[in-house]
Protein 1
Amino acid sequence: KQEVTQIPAALSVPEGENLVLNCSFTDSAIYNLQWFRQDPGKGLTSLLLIQSSQREQTSGRLNASLDKSSGRSTLYIAASQPGDSATYLCAVNSGNTPLVFGKGTRLSVIA
Amino acid sequence: DGGITQSPKYLFRKEGQNVTLSCEQNLNHDAMYWYRQDPGQGLRLIYYSQIVNDFQKGDIAEGYSVSREKKESFPLTVTSAQKNPTAFYLCASSPNRGIFGNTIYFGEGSWLTVV
């Protein structure tokens, strides 16, 4: 059974710092991996989707990488801003079952 | 605007009561899902449906029931058999049935509290 782990559980950084969030998964036979953002008490917003054949995806200040063979993905946030404060969740997709989510990393960017 | 609408946003349930959470989408998506989120936790799958009149249990289906009579609607009933129902419930949908490889879209969630 697929399991997804995110480290660290919480992270606090000063504004302007570059940071990396980590996601690992136990079964490398995935179809794709997605990163989501969740603001407190809200639903999830998709940030980036990486297909299993891709190594990385970029959107603005966000860059997500995927190393399927080692079961790892990272989300890199450049020049962090207070508006980036949220919980970031990683989810993997095996194609024939719905998404399996990690517990998320709660990010605080301090002005 | 296209999207997923969940209602109510906040709901209080007395012990022994059944309650139903509504989820409606106008995205013309085939697949719909219900997830539960507890504080500081990730999302756990309750039920999902890939097509009208068909649905499958997720990892934590006990104490819950669903129906999919229309493509647009996927209501979730939290029954009295669910012993710890206080949580944040999220409904989602995605375009293709049979394969889950497309981006998934979420509603704004419903908070359920047992009083």
Note: The longest strand of chain B covers residues 43-51.
Protein 2
Amino acid sequence: QVQLVQSGAEVKKPGASVKVSCKASGYTFTGHYIYWVRQAPGQGIEWMGWINTNDGDTNYAQKFQGWVTMTRDTSISTAYMELKRLTSDDTAMYFCARVGVVGSRAFDVWGQGTMVTVSS
Amino acid sequence: QSALTQPPSASGSPGQSVTISCTGTSSDVGAYNYVSWYQQHPGKVPKLIIYEVSQRPSGVPGRFSGSKSGNTASLTVSGLQAEDEANYYCSSSAVNYKLIFGGGTKLTVL
């Protein structure tokens, strides 16, 4: 079945970087954009950016420009999100999600989430 | 870019209808018909229930409907059921291919 499987939980120190992976299966990876969002404990959902899995084009939320990098490896149907210079405010669940209907900006399939904890 | 505005909470009794609003601006909700709604139960992954303002993915009950007027989108849940108690988030496309979410609404079934 169609699914996105993310890498496991991470614990990082302030100032470090984290790279989260999102492996797709059950569909043509390059046919759907992958978006990344995060959700701090007890908080709402925050959009971070997207990657065009076909050509690698990216678009980041203004807040994250300069410190997030989204990439993909089409040979293994995997998208990555790297966040640098972590602070405690970056403690959150990070999700990758697939846009289902092309152009709809709607996420029909989500990864299970990767908890990133930033603590000294 | 500020989040879309949703009421923090909403409630209704079983069988009733409840509507949740999602207010943006002429640069997001008002400009595009790419409003989506997600349902999230505590500790779970969000689930898409409405896309492109009013379209329902297969498998989503017809009790969920969406609409838009100007800069405000709305989600209506008719015939409330206990399992509808959850957090609901709207999202909208915005200028320069950005995306913006609402702050979320906690729906309580009384």
Note: The mean pLDDT of chain B is 96.
